[in-house]
């Protein structure tokens, strides 16, 4: 009889339902938080659900691929808002998204769409185009660049046709049409960008 009960318990455990492949958004959730719970990058979650922005609504159902959520770890102390690590972490959340002219989200993104997406993670709404972003904040010299400064280039013969984000250590994050995706790459040590650089604007306080 005891052996029979053990078999029943084992059968019940074996027939437990599989983890749901969807997640219902709750109050206080962010796309990054949900992606972290299911061991994926925010960009992957956006692509999985065809999202064009990081905006989500309470009650919205997201496809999470049936991956088991991770146990929440104690939150680390936040980095200083102007630190290279803080800005680079925000920019890195959306690396590897394919380049698409006029794109603003997971299915494809262009340079100003990428900067706007990253800056939303930093609590700032940027206008849609590189030319409009060129009019934001105030000018800073190349020798005074800080992580989070927007860096601009003339790549088409008109002012501010390309924009990236300075992330410190002589690097910038941008949606690169030549490489076909969002990347972090050298700024002034790259002859292409150095010869087309027109200035930087500081939007973060």
Topology:
Blueprint: H1 2-14, E1 22-24, H2 31-37, H3 42-49, E2 61-63, H4 84-92, E3 104-105, E4 108-109, H5 111-121, H6 130-133, E5 138-140, E6 150-153, E7 162-168, E8 171-176, E9 181-186, H7 191-196, E10 197-202
Antiparallel strand pairs: 1-2, 3-4, 5-10, 6-7, 6-10, 7-8, 8-9
Helix pairs in contact: 2-3
Tell me what the structure shows.
With 205 residues, this protein is α+β, with helices and mostly antiparallel strands. The protein folds into 2 domains: 2-63, Roll (Membrane-bound Lytic Murein Transglycosylase D, Chain A); 84-202, endopeptidase domain like (from Nostoc punctiforme) (endopeptidase fold (from Nostoc punctiforme), Alpha-Beta Complex), CATH 3.90.1720. It is built from 7 helices and 10 strands. The strands form 3 sheets. A 6-stranded antiparallel β-sheet has the order 5-10-6-7-8-9. It has a two-stranded antiparallel sheet with strand order 1-2. The chain has a two-stranded antiparallel sheet with strand order 3-4. Helix 2 (31-37) crosses helix 3 (42-49). The radius of gyration is 21 Å and the shape is elongated. 27% of the residues are buried. Residues 2-20 and 71-81 have low confidence and may be disordered.
